[in-house]
UniProtKB/TrEMBL annotation:
UniProt entry tagged with the keyword Phosphoprotein: no
Name this protein carries in UniProt: G-protein coupled receptors family 1 profile domain-containing protein
Entries under SUPFAM superfamilies matching the protein: Family A G protein-coupled receptor-like (SSF81321)
Keyword line: Cell membrane, Disulfide bond, G-protein coupled receptor, Glycoprotein, Membrane, Receptor, Transducer, Transmembrane, Transmembrane helix
Pfam families: 7tm_1
Segments crossing the lipid bilayer: 30-60, 72-93, 105-131, 152-172, 206-227, 257-276, 296-319
Amino acid sequence: KSVHNYLAQNCFLDYEVPVEEIPDTTQGPAFFGATIIIAVVLVVIMLVCGVGNCLFIASLARYKQLRNLTNLLIANLAVSDVLVAAVCCPFLLDYYVVKQLSWDHGLLLCAATNYLRTVSLYVSTNSLLAIAVDRYMAILYPLRPRMKHQTVYCMILAVWIVPVFISIPSAYMASETTYPHPEGHSQKTFCAQIWPVDQQLYYRSYFLLIFALEFVAPVSAMAVCYAHISRELWFKDVPGFQTEQIRKRLQRRRRTVVVLILVLVAYVLCWAPYYSFTLLRDFYPTLISRDRNSLVAFYIIECITMSNGVINTLSFVSIRSNTRRLKKAGKFPPRLVTFVAATKSADKGEARTSSLRVTEDVDGTHFR
């Protein structure tokens, strides 16, 4: 039996598909091609997310001037991506590519990897939402004081606590299932969440809750935030005389918002296929289980989903030499900064006079 046949017979009887009609999807060139693709994606995640985000975290730890509100929120995204790159990806690479769907690391690590990966993905979602809300408040309500550090730490705690609790079923339902090798030469072990058939209603309710809480609601909230921000930056005139400094600052803000909107679009494009496939698999299983390439499709979709961490890293993080500060202070080496750090002006508050905004530029100087 193949892994798909075994799971269909022993775990997913609610699919109502005869075992003999479920094709062996673990053989053939399509499966081999999907294995190569996921290998490349996992290696890229380990290199880009692991190295890039570690550099960003190290920069925040070393330079206090980088620890503004937005960068602290981005740090959550960086930490969650590092956890996946450093802890989960090596095990997944061994499981998917080296061992060809065979888990040899025990039930505890199987549950821990599933749990940590799920927590990290939801932390990334919540961090993107927090960044969108932060930009919304800073741009649309510049007269209001920025959040205190205690409030920021509470927000960061909430970003992590919610995923920690809602991801518990991913660890509790994780299991190891041994099945024969298709050629009958050796045994293999499947590691995944497996819900009993008699708990199908609970699983579907849980999935719909996650779908609403960690996809529909955050995407809707981020879309609303960036729609209002875009209207403020592109379709409203700044009162009074606009100096060259004000125009440049507005351009920087617009570039930052464009990056954030692209991050949101990438998030939707990466995660929508995953949720769509899962909805079909769990609510209309016969549409998928009869397809010979269903497992290959899942491989490709999983690659697309996991690649979102790489996109976030490349979008938020860039490496550049701050030559102006090198000349001024002589103590700032080439360092890692973020696109959003370029709009550091919002960190200490903004004020609006009767005609112009009083702001702080990147180098800390004020202008009217």
